[in-house]
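Consider today's protein:

***
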Amino acid sequence: MRKKTAIAALSLLMLIMVFAPLAADAQTRPKIRNVDELVNKVLCPVFKWMFVFFIVISIIMIIWSAYLFLFSGGETEHVSDARRALLYTVIAIAVAILARNIPLIVSNFFGSGGSAAC
């Protein structure tokens, strides 16, 4: 019971820390007049960080799946775990590439001609 209460209190504290600046209107909001400005000021920084995050996670997962392959000892269960980890790594790389190109897709969709590529 104490553990659940501690987890709930910690979760509530984290939510307060995340949303307190929004409630106090402490964040500056960029003035966005068209799609190019939206893409350049909002989407590009977010998706650049997503790209870096997924690439770092992918490198860690490649090392982890190599470790699982090396020390599987030929057991089919461990080999399948390694293959599953490698599959998730490929999915993470695909998501990273997609995240890097989403601002260009959005700017093309709204007709700005792709001039807002990051």
In short: The mean pLDDT is 78. Residues 31-109 form one domain. The first helix runs from residue 2 to 23.
